[in-house]
Write a structure and sequence with these properties.
Layout (H helix, E strand, L loop, with lengths): L30 H56 L4 H9 L4 H30 L4 H12 L3 H14 L5 H4 L12 H11 L6 H6 L24 E6 L5 E5 H9 L5 E4 L22 E6 L4 E6 H10 L2 E2 L3 H66 L6 H45 L46 E4 L2 E11 L15 E8 L6 E11 L9 E7 L4 E8 L5 E10 L6 E10 L1
Helix pairs in contact: 2-3, 3-4, 3-5, 11-12
């Protein structure tokens, strides 16, 4: 049996199923052919149905995609409409609506408070995202957010004080008298500072502008009347920031306010410069995007630096990152230190004052003795001359001899009085130095307090705070040895020793050294490296037989990068003789070694 097809061959997978299948007349009545033809038609029908289904599915997908695009466009439109509807209720816009109702002079403070809050939120989100990026749990991320974004009461007190200073509503130095809880840190030191601030309160703008009828300030106020807009020659127009009331004050008073950065005032139409209300950089300072606050160890101050520079400084150990909480607590600590320094200085000032009075009294006493002796000698000479004139048997040679003997005796007595005076003054000086040493005893090793020995007898002397140098003494010609190489290696760290000398308490050269006189064995210690180092400066005193005559003494401290520190230790020789001062130094007590000897001759 032969099956014939007209045209192209047809396969089951062929897409053209519209062609007709033509059978020969002989096969029309063949059952097998008819069955095969039926199956072929069924297959064509199945293919057509599949193609129709696929077409319908494609159409459905296209319709779905068009509906999805349309829905997304409508959603975006709805969201934009929603944003426009709620824009006025955003945190910033809602706050703007609130602040706009406040007086102009305080709006800046409110906005700084808002930005501080935003910084906290940003820090919280950053901490949260960091935890999540490192695979942490959601609870850990929430805890990190709460810790970074939380604000303590003492932080609010600190930043509010800074914002008020920034916007010329408060005085920076006055704000430093308040502690972390917002209370004045009452102490003798704080009282002395308050006294400085308000001793001339009638020259302060708040008093002058609030008391127009006070006759005692009429010299500072113009007589042009109240709430003026122009001033007479020699006066300038001023007002308080918190008030629209204006008045005129003399130029000298206004210039004094500007030079002293007195806050809370506006001076109109002047060329006196601006009143500065800048707050020193601290951990609360907003340095801007890409910058941050670091504490520079060498400069002992906070600075804004780029993030890259900060990373380098932290890696080199030349800077530190402090939190606002640490900064606030350190300020409280500094107040306590300032109180201690003030108390020490008050003791020293009293000792100095008492010494000056005693010295003046002692000098007056011996001056009176010298004058009395001079008067007595003159009376005796006058009496001898009277006897000579009255012819009591005295020749001219006798008169000359008697006068000469009286003058010699007078000179001898005066020399003795002067010796007694000098000895008494020396003893008085020694007593004063001993009292001063007792006053500062125990504070030499305090890391927050250094003693400036060069100035401690001056009425303006101060026990300076942490970054001040401890300078003790000057030079003497008694140095018998200096190290040929001034660079020494201790614990693999280099320390330089220079200017090893002997001086008195005042840093003066000694022409003669006597027993019971305070000496200072001093040296300049330098850290030539770019990292901070600890140091130990040790002193031993031995007699001519190399026997120690007193216990070893030492002082310790820390040198910042490239810092030179003048350090010294005292000794009061109790007897005459020849002695040797042996100096040792190092980075620690375990690493100290001998670096220099100084010969001392005590007369």
């Amino acid at each position: 049996m032969t099956i014939l097809f007209a045209g192209d061959y047809a396969y089951a997978q062929q897409s053209n199923i519209s062609e007709q299948t033509i059978l020969s007349e002989d096969l029309k009545n063949d059952p097998m052919a008819q069955d095969l033809l039926k199956k072929i038609e069924q297959t064509k029908k199945m293919i057509e149905d599949l193609q129709q289904t696929e077409y319908e599915q494609n159409q459905a997908r296209e319709n779905l995609e068009r509906a999805r695009v349309l829905s997304l466009e409508r959603l975006n439109q709805d969201l934009k409409m929603w944003d426009r509807l709620w824009e006025q209720h955003s945190s910033r816009n809602a706050f703007d609506s609130f602040v706009s109702k406040k007086p102009d002079h305080v709006q800046g403070v409110f906005w700084d408070q808002f930005e501080f809050k935003e910084q906290k939120v940003k820090a919280g989100r950053s901490a949260m995202n960091q935890i999540l990026a490192n695979g942490g749990t959601m609870q850990s991320a929430k805890d990190a957010y709460n810790m970074a974004a939380s604000t303590q009461r003492i932080e609010l007190i600190e930043v509010n004080a800074q914002f008020n200073v920034k916007h010329n509503l408060a005085d920076y130095n006055e704000q430093q008298l308040f502690n972390s809880t917002g209370q004045i840190h009452f102490s003798p030191y704080a009282e002395s500072k308050l006294s400085e601030f308000y001793s001339d309160h009638k020259l302060q703008p708040n008093y002058i502008l609030a008391n127009p009828d006070d006759a005692s300030i009429s010299a500072q106020r113009s007589s042009t009347g109240n709430d003026v807009t122009q001033c007479n020659e020699g006066y300038v127009l001023v007002s308080r920031i918190t008030s629209e009331y204006k008045t005129c004050v003399d130029e000298a008073t206004a210039e004094n306010w500007v030079s002293n950065n007195v806050p809370g005032i506006i001076i109109y139409n002047h060329d006196m410069g601006e009143i500065s209300s800048d707050v020193k950089t601290n951990p609360a300072t907003d340095c801007g995007e890409g910058y941050q606050v670091v504490y520079r160890l060498a400069q002992s101050e906070y600075q804004c630096v780029s993030d890259y520079a900060a990373k380098q400084m932290l890696s080199d150990n030349t800077a530190e990152i402090h939190t606002l909480i640490e900064y606030i607590y350190n300020k409280d600590k500094q107040k306590i230190t300032a109180d201690t320094i003030y108390e020490i200085n008050q003791k020293i000032l009293k000792i100095t004052k008492d010494h000056s009075a005693a010295k003046k009294s002692l000098e007056s006493k011996y001056q009176e003795m010298l004058e009395n002796e001079e008067t007595l000698t003159k009376q005796e000479i006058r009496q001898v001359i009277i006897e000579y004139k009255n012819g009591h048997g005295l020749t001219r040679e006798d008169l000359s001899k008697s006068i000469s003997e009286l003058n010699d005796a007078n000179n001898a007595v005066k020399e003795k009085i002067i010796e007694q005076r000098d000895a008494a003054l020396l003893k008085l000086e020694s007593e004063q130095k001993s009292k001063v040493l007792d006053a500062v005893k125990g504070y030499e090793k305090n890391p927050d307090i250094n003693v400036d020995w060069n100035d401690y007898l001056d009425e303006t002397s101060t026990a300076k705070e942490s970054e001040s140098k401890q300078t003790v003494g000057a030079t003497t010609s008694q140095v018998s040895h200096e190290p040929p190489n001034n660079d020494f290696l201790f614990d693999n760290k280099v320390i330089r020793i220079d200017n090893v000398d002997l001086v008195n308490s005042f840093g003066q050269k000694l022409s003669n050294i006597e027993s019971n006189q305070i000496l200072q064995v001093v040296a300049d210690i330098t850290n030539p490296s770019d990292i901070k180092q600890d140091f130990v400066y040790m002193l031993d005193i031995k007699d001519s037989k190399d026997n120690p005559i007193r216990p070893t003494t030492w002082v310790t401290g820390t040198l910042t990068a490239e810092q030179t520190f003048n350090v010294g230790l005292s000794w009061i020789p109790e007897e005459s003789g020849e002695f040797t001062a042996t100096i040792s130094t190092g980075n620690s007590m375990e690493s100290v070694s001998h670096v220099a000897d100084i010969g001392i001759v005590i007369s």
